[in-house]
Amino acid sequence: MEETVGTVDGSLYRVLVLEANSQRKDLFVKLLQKMSVFVYAASDEEEFMREAVTKRYTHMFLANEIYEPSAELFQSVLDAKELLVVGENNSFFHDEFLRGRMIRPVTCLSMKKILTAASQTVTMMDASEKELPFPKASVMVVDDNHINLNIMAHILRNYCGSILTAANGKECLRILGKESVDLIFMDYMMPELDGCDTLHEIRRLKDPDKNSIPVIVLTANAVSGAREMFTEEGFSDYLSKPVEIQKVFNVLQQYLSKDVFVVN
Q1: What domains are there in the chain, each with its CATH number?
Q2: Could you give the 3-state DSSP secondary structure of residue 201?
Q3: Which position among 11, 68, 85, 136 has the lowest Cβ density within 10 Å, counted as fewest Cβ atoms?
């Protein structure tokens, strides 16, 4: 392993990270490399522990999904206030052992705040304190189930600047008559106008900026070949219920235009 360090605001940093899956790990590594910070991504808990005890790193980041089940193990090996845990907004539990907590999605700005924090202990950033990855994006959620609608809207508020909700297909079309949106998440099974019927009405709109909006279908009945079926129907993509937060973020990254992203 190269004995190099990265600098941010003139300070030197070496970062050790263990994420919950390869995609998150790759994103974490690319972000730090973009900041010219040295990062070593451990492949498993054993390698993370082995690297951690060398005391080579200024910051050590660990996925909450890995830390929480094995908290006692990490605390028995590491010194107090050495570890920063990364997780979703609602996934954290109180733990005085930790140096700090960081909310996904991790961005250059939030990482810089962590690395350059004046105090040793970094407080957890909540949704109101962190910057949005897609501050200019306007996203609509359409679902006749009030609970599902609120859950999806809550997830999206961590990412997007404007969230619109519709309880059915007709309400979706009424909103589109007045508002512009960048992306729509659409429930498949709804009364009167179901997801397919609503999609077809959207595609028949005269406004080219609205009839080409990416529409992601939400379904609890994902079966083999579902993606092909929904694509043939005209949907841009699909997510199975219950939705996974990381997959929602992946969809936003894929289908939102670049001008609604945070530029770091």
Answers
A1: 6-115 (3.40.50.2300), 134-260 (3.40.50.2300)
A2: helix
A3: 11
